[in-house]
Every structure is written in structure tokens, then in C-alpha cells.
Amino acid sequence: MVAKAFVLVTTSVGQAKKVLNELKKLDGVKSVDAVMGPYDIIAEVEGDSVDSLGKLITGHLHKVEGIERTLTCQTIRVT
After folding, report:
1. Are 74 and 4 in contact (CB under 8 A)?
2. Residue 58 CB contacts under 8 Å (≥ 6 apart), including other chains
3. pLDDT band at residue 77, thresholds of 50, 70 and 90?
4. What pairs with residue 9 in β-bridges?
5. How confident is the model at residue 45, as a pLDDT?
6. Torsion of the alpha carbons at 48, 72, 41 and 66, rounded to the nearest 10
7. In angstroms, how far is CA 43 from the centroid of its own chain?
């Protein structure tokens, strides 16, 4: 089963474009968009499992310079 989440990103002032371009390079990042409001960027991420998704977020995404804070919203299946 594929694990999927949306990660809302707050960047340092003036760093949104740089962060957006760096996030696009990461394996597992399916889409990245700049947004207006309390967050600067929203990224859609996927992994083979919840564990791989966690490793992507904490091991790679969080290490991108210019990111101040993130909020991860993991999707669920509702039937």
C-alpha cells in the first residue's frame, strides 16, 4: 500500500523559491506548489509505507535549508 501525505512548509523570509526548487529534486515528492496564507509551500509526498514516508520527511525534506517549520497531513482511506 502506498502511503501519501501533504506537507505544509513555512520557509525563512525570501527562501520560498529556493526551498520549492530543492523539494522538487527529492525522490518521493510528487508535487510542490507555492501557496498564500500561513504556509509558503505545500508538497505532496508518497512512500511505499508509513515508515518510508517518515524517512523521506524527517531524513530528507527536513534537511532542506530554508525550512523553518512543517506540518504533515497523512492521507487515509475512507470507505
Report:
1. yes
2. none
3. confident
4. 41, 70
5. 98
6. -100
7. 4
Q: Tell me the pLDDT tens digit for each residue of 43-75.
A: 999 999 999 999 999 999 999 999 999 999 999
What are the structural domain ranges in the chain? 3-74
CA 17 to chain centroid, in Å, comes to 14
Task: Say yes or no: domain 3-74 is CATH 3.30.70.920.
Answer: yes
CA separation for the pair 19, 15 (Å, rounded): 6
Count of helices and strands (H, E) across the chain: 2, 4
CA dist., res. 63 & res. 78, Å (int): 32
d(CA 66, CA 78): 35
Q: Which cell numbers in the block locate residue 63? A: 534537511
Instruction: Quote the strand ranges of 1-79, DSSP E.
Output: 3-11, 29-34, 41-47, 67-74
For residue 72 the three cell numbers come to 504533515
